[in-house]
Amino acid sequence: MPRKLKYSSNIKDKGLLSRELKTAAELHAQGLSYDAIVEESIDNNVFQVNTERRRKELADCIVTRMKYLDDFTLNRIAEGTIFLANIISVYAIMKTNPLVYEFMNEVYREKSELMINRITDADINQFMDVKAQQVEMIAKWKDDNKDKVKGAIRNILVEAGMMRDMGSFYMILVPVLDMDLVSNLQTVDGDIYLRAMGIRV
User: Fold this and answer.
1) C or N: which end of the chain has fewer Cβ atoms within 10 Å?
2) What pLDDT was estimated at residue 1?
């Protein structure tokens, strides 16, 4: 099972950030430490955001996600395509946000395993309603906060290319990863996150 983390709605303020993750992985591959990547963001604005506060917040978020990935995976991001960075960004988000992991495991995975290639807004609403019944913290969130979190999860998966907006529903597009990366992720984390993404291992 994933390590126990606190539920948080902060995903609504962060998003996929795959291009930023790829930039940071490239800096890490050049030998920069995590602290140095944060300094690069603050001093040289490598992530191209407006304020110094936002530069630090964004770098801290990216570095947090990087710390949940091993060096092999980070190097693959640095050397790979933006599509790969998209998929591994979702992977890292699942590892840092239990609500996103549970959505992927309980909705995305279950639908893909049943060969139901669509997720509707009703599915997403039902998921959040169930979580509000199960988790006191989520039950205390205001409705507009819940709506923003649901929208963030939708947007992340669409931007990552793991769902396609078809108007009345979202088509599930299970990603394909090469076997050496899959094998490495299995070695590090087991199957739980890969299965949550619909990847059969």
Assistant:
1) N
2) 47
Q: Is 25 helix (H, G, I), strand (E, B) or coil?
A: helix
Residue 166 CB-density burial (10 A; 0-12 exposed, 13-18 middle, 19+ buried): exposed
Classify 24 in phi/psi space as left (phi over 0), alpha (psi -120 to 50) or beta.
alpha
User: Distance (Å, rounded) from C-alpha 46 to C-alpha 15?
Assistant: 18
**Per-domain boundaries in the chain:** 10-196
Going by the DSSP 8-state scheme, the letter that residue 12 receives in this structure is: G
> Going by CATH, does the domain composed of 10-196 fall within 1.10.3540.10?
yes
> Which residues make Cβ contacts (< 8 Å) with residue 3, sequence separation at least 6?
none
Contact 43, 72 (CB under 8 A): no
Enumerate residue ranges in the chain where pLDDT < 70.
Answer: 1-3
Residue 169 DSSP code: S
8 Å CB contact between 131 and 123: no
Q: With contact defined as beta carbons under 8 Å apart, do 156 and 181 qualify?
A: no
pLDDT value of position 4: 73
Give residue 32's pLDDT: 96
Model pTM? 0.95
- In the chain, the N- to C-terminal Cα span, in Å, equals 16
